[in-house]
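Protein data:
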Amino acid sequence: MTFADLDNMLLLQGPALARLTDEEFFDLCQHNPTLRLERTADHNIIAMPPAGSESSRKSSEIVFQLMLWNRQHQLSHVYESSAGFTLPDGSVRSPDAAWLGRAAFDSLSEEQRQRFPPVCSAFVVEVRSPSDGLASLRRKMEVYLANGVELGFLLDPAAETAYVYRRGQEPEELVGFDRALSAEPTLPGFELDLHPLRRR
């Protein structure tokens, strides 16, 4: 990973950062609430710019649809972008939207739930903002799959293009937001309506 393909994200490196424990990284994030921080598997820290209002609106629409479905089905829990998850490779990632299955949630202690829990969501969504490079987001989706995510949607509202990532399959590219994306069988009965995310 180079600065060139991190776009407007800032990559922090160094032996001191590599020695940070999970607890120390969590504390660093708590002491810097205005920064959106993630951590790679080799403990480099990525600082991302705040989302613009339009990107935030679109991410909120996705979380709303996901929460509405989850409330109707009562299957488990939905998270928005401020939640961090410690993946099996040691990285800490914060998807724009995520759904954690019941068994994974129940496996966590109350203390783990208060921090960046060591668990991988079954379903994640990333929404490309103007400051995001597509290549780096696609790599992020591959990291999710490699760590156990079953299904992921990468959405590029500016191009009205969706990329669907399913474990064990090549990503599917779908052009046009005049559709809904099925999350079957990972999320039974859930379809993400892309119409509200279209350019206006």
Notes: Residues 99 and 160 are 23 Å apart (CA to CA). Helices lie at 15-18, 22-31, 53-73, 102-106, 110-113, 134-146.
